[in-house]
Amino acid sequence: MVRLTRNKLRSNHVEGTGTGSQGAKERNRRSKEYEELKEKLKRERSLLVLWRKPHITLAYFLRELFIEFKKLIHGILQHRKTVSLLVITLLISALLYYLDGPHQEFVRKVEWQLLWCGYWIGLGILSSVGLGTGLHTFLLYLGPHIASVTMAAWSCKSVDFPEPPYPHNIICPEEAASYRITLWTIVTKVRLESFMWGLGTALGELPPYFMARAARLSGSEEDDEEYEELEAVLHSQKKDPLTRAKKAVHRLVERVGFFGILLCASIPNPLFDLAGITCGHFLIPFWTFFGATVIGKAIIKMHIQKFFVIVAFSNDHVEWFINWIGLIPYVGVYLQKPFSEYLKQQKLKLHMKGTEKDAQNTGFLQQLFGWLLILMVAYFILSIVNSMAQSFAKRQDEEKLHQGLSKKKKN
């Protein structure tokens, strides 16, 4: 794909138009035509979605997927030594995995830990990747998991849940714990999965950083849509809270550096993509950006979110919340009933065996959560298809712009 900066396109576009006031008018006219055409193509790309143009969107998605696959193969061929070392490591691991011996018990433990960590890292990446269009996996997966462990810990007076079926199912241990349940006990129980999820969210913030960095190094940042949007925000005269927040994030990262990135990553911040774009544009070192992001998201922010969920789902607070729902006029009694039944079923399941638990019918709230989860995942997949189709359309539009300007230059 041919990529040219806006300035280069404009210079090619107006070359040979003359000098003086007449040449200036011609340059302004052609520059205006270029901007209008570019905006028109951008609006047309925004309409390229599955529910409007399903056939074209799917075709563009598959072609973009093929391009990305070729890029992956090209990247693998460029790092042959690293790939070779990785293949050798995988072959040795496969031999250890399939050969019988006393090491198998250790191998199974390592396998389980790696799968468990990889599961949460993957969910974390899905949560933050995609410039704000990610799947909200904390609300859908990690939050409910922490809440289940919290309620089980207070009900069972222990966190020594039998493994298996934990973590897929939580059952109270038969023997009483020799320790007292505290907030820190529950935090320790869910620390690994929480950290891995936070690490995944940090990894998901890397694409905006690398895209902005690559655009700056290649000199094509002015032709990058994300950078254009950032510039539009920074030069906007609007005084609304969202615009002010975006400007504040940009200034903080630009002026403070590591500690600014750390502060932005340490609080729930839906505008953190701007921090990644800013860091990439100003060529902030990778380990400065990634290190501050990991510390902020996987350690500081993750503990804040974790403490909030644990406190919110402690016994006293859950019962207070259910009682508070009952005080809502007219509808409170009707809303209180499904929550009370759900809490009662959850406490009952904690003392059941696996077969008894599987035989229980799911409640209304569990069914509602299941349908909500399906809808969220479906929307996430649709957004990926639409985004990749629009990326391919952008490639074609840039070629059209270049070809159109080249024809006018010849004329």
TrEMBL record:
Which domain of life does this protein belong to?
A: Eukaryota
The answer on whether this UniProt entry bears the keyword Transit peptide reads no
Residues passing through the membrane, by range: 82-99, 119-142, 252-268, 274-295, 368-385
Stretches for region Disordered: 12-31
**Record keywords:** Membrane, Transmembrane, Transmembrane helix
Query: What is the recorded name of this protein?
Result: Vacuole membrane protein 1
Q: Which organism is it from?
A: Amphimedon queenslandica (Sponge)
